Amino acid sequence: MSETPTPTGRRSATWLRRGLPWLLTLLCFGYLYWKIHGQAARAGETPLRFIAGVFQGVSWSKWLALMIPYSAFFLVIDSLVVWRVIGWFNTRVRYLDILPIRASAYIISILDERIGKGAIGYYLHRRDGVPGWQVGSSMLFIMFCEIYYLLSWATLGVALRGDRLPPVFHVIPWVALAAAAVLVMFVLYFRGVIAPGSKLRDRQIFHAFRQANLWHYGTFIVLRSPAMIVGVVVYTLALRLFGVQAELLDMLGYLPVIFFGAAVPGPFRAVAITLWTQLFPESPGQMAAFGLVQHNFFVFFNAAIGLLFLRHTNRELARTAADGR
Q: Which pTM value belongs to this model?
């Protein structure tokens, strides 16, 4: 017989869930300070003055000229992916109806991207009458596919520039091979070929996975890929503005792994920032500054774009409520 968790146990789990990201962030920033302190000491400066010098050396007008169009382009591609997945598994909607809610959800995504996708599901449930669990299944499908999307690009990066990447990256192709086998079994299970008597697949939260074929997963990666290609170019050029030289093909190997790190829950995208210093160990100060600015600007500027669409989104929900849906 299963035991019901005690109030004390629930509180402990809650504190652990809330406190672990902050603890991880403190550890990351402690490590970053140690690395920056060493580089600053070699230059005969304090860590604060050293980082200030890095920021002063950046041409911020050129940096903004890279990042603002990239953020807008990312929204276009991100909305395209959501629109296509909803069309596959839920209902037909216009792309221009998806873009405002995808943008508005970036505001909530400051806290957690999963919450942002939950907001999209709620909007589609209220506006278009899509059953909540089914649209939630589509959001889960998107998150699942994003792992394969990043893994696919990381594998390509290792194939092209494996000799320049840290040895730990060389395991990525093997992980990708195992993940591909898992995906095939995953599809076969939800198509009823494997374990045909299983009832788990019939749950509404797996609605999208029951309908998906391998070509859905492949098409997802293709639709998402322009964001990665443009991101590689933008991040390479932006890194040079911080005084660190990198080649496009090198960045192709780095960026998917960095984006994996950015997906780890925690304030300030601390894991992603720490990964930059690992990939460019000779310039930890520049890389810490670069990572901090890149990832947090991207998150907060996307949220600012979302504010432009928030009134439209709220107006749509109010109209839906007035219509009695």
A: 0.83
Residue with the two structure tokens 């299944």: 137
Residue 2 scores a pLDDT above 50: no
Quickly list DSSP for 239-252.
HHHTT----HHHHH
User: Residue 261 corresponds to which tokens in the numbers above?
Assistant: 């790190």
Cα 284 from Cα 291, distance rounded (Å): 10
Residue 210: name the closest of 193, 235, 228, 230 by CA.
193
* Residues in the chain, overall count: 325
Residue among 142, 135, 97, 141 nearest 119 (CA):
135
Neighbour tally for 312: CB within 10 Å: 14
Contact 46, 40 (CB under 8 A): yes
Q: Are 286 and 242 in contact (CB under 8 A)?
A: yes
Neighbours of 221 (CB within 10 A): 18
Q: What residue segments make up the domains of the chain, in order of their start? A: 21-36+45-320
Cβ atoms of 306 and 105 closer than 8 Å:
yes
Q: Can you say how many angstroms the Cα of residue 80 is from the centroid of all Cα atoms in its chain?
A: 16
Q: Each residue of 144-156: pLDDT tens digit?
A: 999 899 889 888 8
